[in-house]
C-alpha cells in the first residue's frame, strides 16, 4: 500500500489557502499535515510536519522566500501565488539545480510547479489565445477580479499577454496598430507590448477576456471562475504531479499536455 502524500499549505487562513485545506481533507491519497500562517517559520513548519509537498497561496512579497525555504526543507512546491518574474523564476531554477545535484540516488529530485491559474477554463483560455495570436493584427487582455485582490494586472493576464507576445514574435508580427497620442494611461498596462486592462468590482471572483481583432472581424475568448472551488481540481493535480516533474515547471498547461 502506498502512503498518502503529506501536504502543507502556506497561507492556510487566506481565501485560497482555506479552500485548498478543505480540498486536501476531502481528497484520496493526500494528507493535510500543516496549516502555515503569516509570521511562522515556513522551513521549520514543513520539516516538523515531514511534508512531501507544500502549496503556497500567500502574497507576492513572500512567495519566493517561501519556495526557497520549502526546498531547503526537502519538499516539492506547488505555487499559485502571483508576483513571479524572470529573475525570481531563474533563482528558483538555480536553487533546484544545486539541490538536485547534491541529492542522493535514493531521493527523488525536487520539483516546483508555479501555475498562474489552476482553473481549467483559464488554462484553456490561455492556450487558445496563444494559438490564435498569430492570426490577428490586434490583441488586448481584460482581467476582472474581486476588489480584495492586492496586485494588478493579474498573474493570469501577465501569463496570457506574454504568451500572445511570444506567438506574435515567432510569427514575425510587428507592433499592434494604436494611434493613441494623448491619454496613454487609459490604455492599460503594457505587458511585452500587449495592453492589459484590470477591472476590480465587488461581486466578481476571477475572470478574463482576450480580444483579437482584424479588419472586419473579432474573436473574444472569455473564461469565468465564479467560485474558488474551480481552482481545486488543478491544485490537487499539481500536488499529485509535482513529485514526478523535477526542476521548475511554469503553467498547468504543461501538466495537462496542452503546451
Ligand atoms: N494560481 C491560481 O489559480 C490562483 C492564484 N491566486 C493567488 O493566490 C494568492 C493568494 O490569494 P488569496 O488567497 O485570495 O489571498 P488572501 O489575502 O486571502 O490570502 C493570503 C494569505 O497569506 C497569508 N500570508 C501572508 N504572508 C505570508 C507568509 N509569509 N507566510 C505564510 N502566509 C502568509 C496571509 O495572512 C493570508 O492568510 C494571490 O497571489 C492570488 O493572486 C488566487 C486564486 C487562484
Ligand atoms: O487573486 C485572485 O483572486 C486570483 N489570482 C490569480 C491571478 O492573479 O491571476 C488567479 C486568478 O485570476 C484569481
TrEMBL record:
Active site residues according to the UniProt entry: 145 (proton donor/acceptor), 149 (proton donor)
InterPro entries: DapB_C, DapB_N, DapB_N_CS, DHDPR_bac, NAD(P)-bd_dom_sf
Protein name: 4-hydroxy-tetrahydrodipicolinate reductase
Family assignment from sequence similarity: Belongs to the DapB family.
Classification via PANTHER family: 4-HYDROXY-TETRAHYDRODIPICOLINATE REDUCTASE 1, CHLOROPLASTIC-RELATED (PTHR20836:SF0), DIHYDRODIPICOLINATE REDUCTASE (PTHR20836)
Residues annotated to bind (S)-2,3,4,5-tetrahydrodipicolinate: 146, 155-156
This enzyme's EC code(s): 1.17.1.8
Amino acid at each position: 500500500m502506498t502512503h498518502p502524500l503529506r501536504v502543507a499549505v502556506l497561507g492556510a487562513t487566506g481565501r485560497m489557502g482555506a479552500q485548498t485545506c478543505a480540498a486536501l481533507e476531502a481528497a484520496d491519497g493526500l494528507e493535510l499535515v500543516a496549516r502555515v500562517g503569516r509570521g511562522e517559520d515556513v522551513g521549520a513548519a514543513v520539516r516538523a510536519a515531514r511534508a512531501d509537498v507544500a502549496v503556497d497561496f500567500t502574497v507576492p512579497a513572500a512567495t519566493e522566500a517561501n519556495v526557497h525555504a520549502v526546498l531547503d526543507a526537502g519538499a516539492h512546491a506547488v505555487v499559485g501565488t502571483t508576483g513571479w518574474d524572470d529573475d525570481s523564476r531563474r533563482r528558483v531554477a538555480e536553487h533546484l539545480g544545486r539541490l538536485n545535484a547534491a541529492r542522493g540516488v535514493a531521493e527523488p529530485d525536487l520539483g516546483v510547479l508555479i501555475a498562474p491559474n489552476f482553473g481549467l477554463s483559464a488554462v484553456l483560455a490561455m492556450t487558445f489565445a496563444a494559438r490564435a495570436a498569430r492570426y490577428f493584427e490586434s490583441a488586448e487582455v481584460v482581467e476582472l477580479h474581486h476588489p480584495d485582490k492586492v496586485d494588478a494586472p493579474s498573474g493570469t493576464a501577465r501569463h496570457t499577454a506574454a504568451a500572445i507576445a511570444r506567438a506574435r514574435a515567432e510569427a514575425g508580427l510587428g507592433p499592434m496598430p494604436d494611434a493613441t497620442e494623448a491619454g496613454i494611461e487609459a490604455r492599460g498596462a503594457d505587458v511585452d507590448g500587449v495592453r492589459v486592462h484590470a477591472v476590480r468590482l465587488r461581486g466578481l471572483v476571477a475572470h478574463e477576456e482576450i480580444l483579437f481583432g482584424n479588419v472586419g472581424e473579432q474573436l473574444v475568448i472569455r473564461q469565468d471562475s465564479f467560485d474558488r472551488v474551480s481552482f481545486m481540481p488543478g491544485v490537487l493535480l499539481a500536488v499529485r504531479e509535482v513529485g514526478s516533474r523535477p526542476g521548475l515547471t511554469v503553467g498547468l498547461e504543461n501538466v495537462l499536455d496542452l503546451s
